[in-house]
UniProtKB/TrEMBL annotation:
Highest taxon in the source lineage: Bacteria
Name of this chain's protein: AMP-binding protein
Domain AMP-dependent synthetase/ligase: 31-397
Residues covered by the AMP-binding enzyme C-terminal domain: 448-523
PANTHER family: LONG-CHAIN-FATTY-ACID--COA LIGASE, NONRIBOSOMAL PEPTIDE SYNTHASE PES1 (EUROFUNG)-RELATED
InterPro entries: AMP-bd_C, AMP-bd_C_sf, AMP-binding_CS, AMP-dep_synth/lig_dom, ANL_N_sf, ATP-dep_AMP-bd_enzyme
């Protein structure tokens, strides 16, 4: 039988395990152990109410029994497309408990993307919410089931309505004895989505052993313990929200997870005050609105100790505002669903916290920074980040043709990120290998120009893209979100040159935009900007 994805060798797995860099338990067992140790402690808070660890574990058993009875068999894939609500956590752990494989899809994905993922994974079931914004996920799922013979079950969190589907509530067994584990730690635990901004996301295989270690080590790096109250603001299916340290890391440490139904700072600030939230995570695009709201809110935010920011580069100026204006510690996080996580240490000086994107999580993380020819570059010089380690994948799920492009022959993952490395080992994100404007032969890193633009008075957000030009090859276009009038190109030029930027890096064109379009994981959608700019 052909293996669906490349794995580390048995020798590597044994070595990682002996050094403590892989977990010797399943993710379901992690929850079971916490329920035994802290049965009456609050595990989960959502709009549906509060669940103790004992209640959460028992409810997971009841749903697991119902899912197994459909039947859903060990090893079968189930596409889970749910927002931040109680059913997401219940479904995730119930599927893990019966040995099925959740495919974690963001609710913001379009129907065509979801169907493509369901085909690739050969999903036997699709779990959706009864509503999401203005869309009806139930109807979309029912139509998809008609086109995919292998998609046997449509399950709905909430009211299934008139479509041929079953509610998750109806699957809850009246009472269930604790179920036996149906998986091995080295088995495939779940499939994540790649965070690319173009094309259909690829499926990332994660095992119980590597994902559990990722969550545990992240919790340790972030100071998470049983007193931590984590607010899940970003989509729960996002790897950042899952294990950095996220839902899995906090539950593994016996803390409390609070599910935020939307990323609005008003909603979040109310929950921070009510639940005594100590830790939360944002992408850079959300930070300005949080800082604005902090100036006028009456909510008590004094419990918040750490704000993590990751998903893309946070500019230095905004980074330095977080401590004084939110009254908490900033921790930058640079990682990927494919594996490698980097964190700025909680006790690092401001220059490190505000000016770098962290250092590798594990002592076993191997990191290379290389030029276009694959040669290692010296510290301080930009290059592509390559990585290999105990929790980084060795190949995508059912995508061998892609593996040849994204992995070196000796198993290093080509991240596509341009970084520099300090002598102390901290990484600074310069941009993406392809996030450049090739203007008259000069390669301009978009993130560098964006950093200069954000220093222009009145500019709240900025994105730079390249558009075809008959004379330059590509011309650089800056899209700016501003508080007042959009600055002219000459004003931008004067500001950038005043900061020491090279003249050729000044955007050829400056355009105002109401808001930057975002992908499902909160990154600026430059594909849409290019389409908008060329219209």
């Amino acid at each position: 039988m052909t293996q669906d994805w490349p794995r580390p060798s048995e020798e590597e797995i044994r070595s990682y395990r002996e050094q403590g860099f892989r977990e010797d338990r399943t993710l379901s067992r992690l929850l079971r152990e916490r329920a035994a140790a802290r049965p009456g402690a609050t595990a989960l808070v959502s709009r549906s109410g509060r669940l103790t660890y004992a209640e959460l574990d028992a409810r997971v058993d009841r749903l697991a029994l119902g899912l197994a009875g459909l039947p859903i068999h060990p090893g079968e894939r189930v596409l889970v497309r749910l927002p931040n609500r109680e059913e997401y956590v219940l479904t995730l752990f119930a599927l893990l408990r019966i040995g099925a494989v959740p495919v974690l899809a963001l609710p913001s994905l379009g129907p065509a993307e979801v169907e493509s993922l369901a085909r690739t994974a050969d999903a036997c079931a699709l779990v959706v919410a009864d509503r999401h914004g203005r869309s009806d996920p139930r109807a979309e799922a029912a139509r998809m089931a008609e086109r995919l013979p292998g998609l046997r079950h449509v399950l709905v969190a909430g009211d299934p309505g008139d479509v041929p589907a079953r509610s998750l509530e109806s699957l809850l067994a009246p009472r269930a004895a604790p179920l036996d584990e149906a998986a091995d730690p080295e088995d495939l635990a779940l499939l994540l989505l790649s965070g690319g901004t173009t094309g259909t996301p690829k499926l990332i295989p994660r095992t119980h052993a590597d994902y559990g270690y990722n969550a545990r080590a992240s919790a340790e790096a972030c100071g998470v313990d049983s007193g931590t109250v984590y607010l899940a603001v970003l989509p729960a299916a996002h790897n950042f929200t899952m294990v950095s340290p996220g839902i899995v890391g906090v539950l593994g440490a016996g803390g409390t997870v609070v599910l935020c139904p939307d990323p609005s700072p008003t909603t979040a600030f109310g929950l921070i005050e009510r639940e005594g939230v100590t830790l939360t995570s944002l992408v850079p695009a959300l930070v300005p609105s949080w800082l604005d709201e902090a100036r006028r809110t009456r909510a008590d935010l004094s419990s918040l100790r750490v704000l993590q920011v990751g998903g893309s580069r946070l500019d230095d100026a905004t980074a330095r505002r977080i401590g004084p204006e939110l009254g908490c510690h900033l921790q930058q996080v640079f990682g990927m669903a494919e594996g490698l996580n980097n964190y700025t240490p909680l006790d690092a000086p401001d220059d490190v916290v505000c000016g770098t994107q962290g250092r590798p999580l594990s002592p076993a993380d191997e990191v290379l920074v290389v030029d276009e020819d694959g040669a290692t570059v010296p510290d301080g010089a930009p290059g592509e980040l390559l990585t290999r380690g105990p929790y980084t994948l060795r190949g995508y799920y059912r995508a061998r043709e892609l593996d040849a492009l994204r992995f070196t022959p000796d198993g290093f993952y080509r991240t596509g990120d341009l970084v520099t490395r300090t002598p102390a080992g901290d990484l600074v994100v310069v941009g993406r290998v392809k996030d450049q404007v090739n203007r008259a032969g000069e390669k301009i890193a978009a993130v560098e120009v964006e950093e200069h633009l954000l220093a222009v008075p009145g500019v709240r957000a900025a994105a730079v893209v390249g558009l075809p030009d008959p004379h330059l090859g590509e011309r650089s276009v800056a899209f700016l979100v501003t508080e007042g009038p959009v600055p002219s190109r000459e004003e931008v030029r004067a500001a950038m040159l005043g900061r020491g930027a090279a003249p050729f890096k000044v955007p050829d064109e400056v355009r105002g935009i109401g808001a930057l379009p975002l992908t499902g994981v909160g990154k600026v959608d430059k594909k849409r900007l290019r389409a908008h700019g060329g219209a």
